[in-house]
Amino acid sequence: MQVLVTGGAGFIGSNFLNLSVPRYRDRRFVNVDHLGYAANLANVAETAKSPNYAFVRVDITDADAVDRLFHDHPPDLVVHFAAESHVDRSIVGPRAFVRTNIEGTFNLLEACRKYWPKGRGLFHHVSTDEVYGSLGESGAFTEATPYDPSSPYSASKAASDHLVRAYARTYGLATKITNCSNNYGPYQFPEKLIPLTILNAIDRKPLPVYGKGLNVRDWLYVEDHCEAIWAVIDHGGPGRTYNVGGNNEVRNIDVVRQICRLLAEETGQREDDLLALISYVTDRPGHDLRYAIDATRLKAECRWTPQETFETGLRRTVRWYLSNKAWVDEVRSGDYRKWIATNYADRTQP
Ligand code: NAD
Ligand code: DAU
């Protein structure tokens, strides 16, 4: 069996490959990535030594290149991670999100339609809970919650979900979709809240918190997300959608405080000195208040349960960033520096 993993040099895709390649020696994995700013082949350096792994550089917005990819490496399973994934970047420059997340997904679906005879193949689409928009103080997203995306990122992911379902209904393509909450863990590009806070705190830089820090996210350790994807691939119903979440609802300000505590415990620094770095900055436009996931369907149909609590997963994550300085230094050069300087440097207090 050949498994084509798009976006396998990014955060979740590389964790997925690191878990999968050694485990499934009878399968061949092809990592397809255009190596954009968030990608890093160092994320899969160990995995790349395996004989059942190959890397192919392809931009999924290039329809001809995607067609060639399917011709040269005919897949039995596509696990589609590749995307522009950062909400703040989608606010600054939405075009790339429309191109990769909508058109790129469309190109992959077209290739599946062309190369897979009826009954062959499975297209697993990795999506986000942000397609459902924002919750108020109570309730949780179920698979029946109407789509109501707020940002160009979530709107583009919503469009891609609709395309995937349309290909299942119209052309009979075998598809599955997972909509997951916020991931954290090793190899996450340090533009997202958790790695940004850890690295800024290590460097004693301000810890930017949007608005009053009262927005709530549901946090899931990345390996638990990857296991959920396999659980759905192996046990999920055809054409079904599954919400994935950690049952770890935390206010942003409490995420930042918890990181300060863990970092103090891990390094011997004074927690109060780290807490003093917290800096409230102008809120994100269209900022969703709260996400929460009802994962009943996934647990009941696919026998999945997350292994990490927020405390254990966050400690693992803090330790990982502390002990992978070379990775951090490499990632924080180049485009990252430009992005931070242009978009995150001059934020005023609300
Ligand atoms: P990421 O930004 O770390 O990685 C995305 C990867 O896709 C990168 O390696 C990038 O180079 C690649 N890519 C982007 N555009 C491409 C293109 N045109 N052609 C080929 N490759 C391209 O993102 P992530 O956090 O790993 O997210 C992976 C997937 O999971 C995304 O689809 C995202 O919407 C979804 N998701 C993420 C989270 C989260 O909390 N990070 C939660 C739920 C769902
Ligand atoms: O819910 C799933 C989504 O989670 C994924 O689909 C996205 O790909 C992923 O980026 C993530 O989106 P968020 O916008 O929730 O993640 P981010 O880490 O950017 O922000 C988390 C929360 O922290 C959010 O409420 C905004 C806030 N924030 C973020 C940054 C970068 C801050 O307060 N300060 C910051 O500097």
Could you characterize what this model shows?
This protein has 350 residues and is of the alpha/beta class. The chain contains 13 helices and 12 strands. The chain has a 7-stranded parallel beta sheet, with helices on both faces. It has a 3-stranded mixed beta sheet with strand order 7-9-11. A two-stranded parallel ribbon has the order 8-12. Strand 5 (122-128), helix 5 and strand 6 (175-180) form a beta-alpha-beta unit. The chain is globular. The N and C termini lie far apart (54 Å). Bound molecules: nicotinamide-adenine-dinucleotide and 2'deoxy-thymidine-5'-diphospho-alpha-D-glucose. Nicotinamide-adenine-dinucleotide (NAD) binds at residues 7, 9-13, 33-36, 38-39, 59-61, 81-85, 100, 104, 126, 128, 157, 180, 182-183, 189.
